[in-house]
Design a protein that fits this description.
- The chain has 442 residues and is of the alpha+beta class.
- It folds into 4 domains: 14-105, Rossmann fold (3-Layer(aba) Sandwich); 135-210, ATP-grasp fold, A domain (Dna Ligase, domain 1), CATH 3.30.1490.20; 214-353, ATP-grasp fold, B domain (D-amino Acid Aminotransferase, Chain A, domain 1, 2-Layer Sandwich); 357-436, Aldehyde Oxidoreductase, domain 3 (Alpha-Beta Complex), CATH 3.90.1170.30.
- The protein has helices at residues 24-35, 66-77, 91-103, 110-116, 119-128, 145-148, 176-191, 193-196, 258-275, 333-341, 375-379, 417-430; strands at 14-19, 39-44, 59-60, 84-87, 136-140, 157-161, 171-173, 205-210, 214-224, 227-235, 249-252, 280-289, 302-308, 322-324, 328-331, 350-351, 355-361, 367-373, 384-389, 396-397, 408-414, 432-436.
- The protein has a 4-stranded parallel beta sheet. It has a 4-stranded antiparallel beta sheet with strand order 5-8-6-7, sandwiched between helices. Strands 10-9-12-13 form a 4-stranded antiparallel beta sheet.
- Strand 14 (322-324) and strand 15 (328-331) form a beta hairpin.
- Helix 2 (66-77) crosses helix 3 (91-103).
- It is globular, with a radius of gyration of 22 Å.
- The protein starts with 13 loop residues before the first strand and ends in a 6-residue tail after the last strand.
- The relative contact order is 0.12.
């Protein structure tokens, strides 16, 4: 697949950032764009009634209608030329793909993005492409879970929504009773106003899939004009065995045996070809059979859990730094992805040599966030670089599987992955969060 070259202009170039909200991740991309001398334009699905409610010149969009979004972006570009587009999170990617196709800008194809946004369709495509995926079935959330509990794929199994991300709504069931409880709990989540307002067909379904025991890794990568470039393989040192699957630690480089890492990369490359991803970021999740990750000489079996046509979320990207002979030294993932969006060659980009990691600070219980103590002591731990508490006083905290946020992020660097992991855990131990009970709504 070929892409048109972006013509240089004498005026300042414009980057369109498509995002559901002005989050920390959005701010990081905006700061990176301004550092590169670009003019930033936001496209968000905020209030359409008020005229520029946040006074940031954002283009109001409805991400549930990707075709209309693309038309509005094209219309906007007639007055304000758009030179590149980045999309943050899953929902805006469909609009980004269609807008880039219409504007002749490099991006993943529309069909590839649409498939990646639906866990069922992506699993079907991957299975058809001879990739190893857990056995799976899909059911309307209005179905009777009691009738489904005895069907394939058996126990243990994992139930999950098709369109939510960040392990939200993902629950393991080991028997029929747990299956029914998990199904009903996910149905309640999908029926909530917060999810229904998304107006997405995928929110009507619950997927049931076989549970795969083993180590889990995440891969951050890009596809540059059809060529896969792996940026980092993150180990997830905490066992993700359920009943919920809250991700806490990401540490890179991976401590998996070299053969296992090679198999992960080869599997990802095959998945990219099968899904027809062509140009842009991707975030992938894999499981490796437990017996094949301990250096016992067995060829590792790698199972594909997810391939998303977007970068990693939240503030996790702060754990990554890159260098390139052509693009410079010590730049961020956001800068790299902006260069990629403008069609620049990123094949010579390499991650820093130091080990690094991030802890997504979990919510221990529901309630109202009040305060945190011990931040200074946590920051004093060797290897810890920064701690960002994203929870705000008075904020209602909802843990997984219903919740969609963390208390904050801890970042560390060191000479080895074990040192980084130790630094993150020690820092977390020093933090003491005050969470008040939430009063019931009558």
């Amino acid at each position: 697949m070929s892409f048109p070259e972006i013509k240089a202009r004498s005026t300042q170039k414009h980057l369109l950032i498509l995002c559901a909200t002005t989050s920390y991740q959005t701010q990081a991309f905006a700061e990176a764009a301004r550092k590169l001398g670009l003019k930033v334009v936001f496209g968000t699905d905020r209030c359409h009634v008020l005229e520029d409610p946040w006074q940031d010149g954002a283009l109001p969009l409805r991400f549930d209608d990707a075709e209309q979004c693309a038309r509005e972006i094209v219309d906007f570009s007639r007055k304000t030329p758009i030179d590149a587009v980045v999309a943050l999170g899953d929902r805006p990617t469909a609009a980004a793909a269609r807008a880039c196709q219409a504007l002749g800008l490099p991006y993943h194809p529309v069909g590839a993005v649409d498939v990646c946004r639906d866990k069922y369709r992506s699993r079907e495509r991957l299975r058809t492409g001879d990739l190893r995926v857990p056995a799976f079935t899909r059911h309307l959330y209005s179905a009777d879970p009691g009738e489904l509990a005895g069907s394939s794929p058996g126990f243990p199994c994992v139930l999950k929504p098709l369109s939510l991300s960040g392990s939200r709504g993902v629950i393991r069931a080991d028997n029929a009773e747990q299956f029914v409880a998990a199904f009903e709990r996910i149905r309640d989540l999908l029926s909530s106003p917060e999810v229904q307002v998304l107006r997405e067909e995928a929110t009507r379904f619950i997927q049931v899939e076989a549970y795969i025991a083993g180590a889990e890794v995440a891969v951050e990568a890009v596809v540059d004009r059809g060529q896969l470039e792996v940026l980092a393989i993150f180990d997830k040192p905490d066992p993700l065995e359920g009943p919920y699957f809250e991700e806490t630690l990401y540490v890179t480089p991976s401590r998996l045996p070299r053969e296992a890492q090679r198999t992960v990369i080869d599997t990802l490359a095959q998945a990219v070809r099968v899904l027809r991803l062509a140009h842009g970021p991707l975030h992938a999740e894999f499981r490796l059979d437990r017996q094949n990750v301990a250096g016992d000489g067995l060829a590792p079996r790698v199972w594909v859990l997810e391939i998303a046509a977007r970068p990693m979320g939240g503030l996790c990207s702060r754990a990554l730094r890159f260098s390139s002979p052509t693009l410079g030294e010590g730049f961020s993932l956001e800068e790299l992805l902006i260069h990629l969006a403008f069609g620049k060659n990123v094949h010579d980009v390499r991650r820093e040599t130091a080990a690094s990691g991030v802890m997504m600070v979990p919510i221990p219980r529901g309630g109202i966030y009040e305060s945190v103590e011990g931040v200074e002591e946590a920051l004093s731990q060797p290897g810890v670089e920064d701690i960002v508490i994203t929870a705000k006083p008075g904020q209602r905290l909802v843990p997984l599987p219903e919740g969609s946020s963390y208390l904050g992020f801890i970042f560390a660097r060191g000479t080895s992955p074990p040192r980084v992991e130790d630094a993150l855990r020690r820092a977390h131990e020093k933090l003491c969060f005050a969470i008040a009970p939430a009063l019931p709504v009558i």
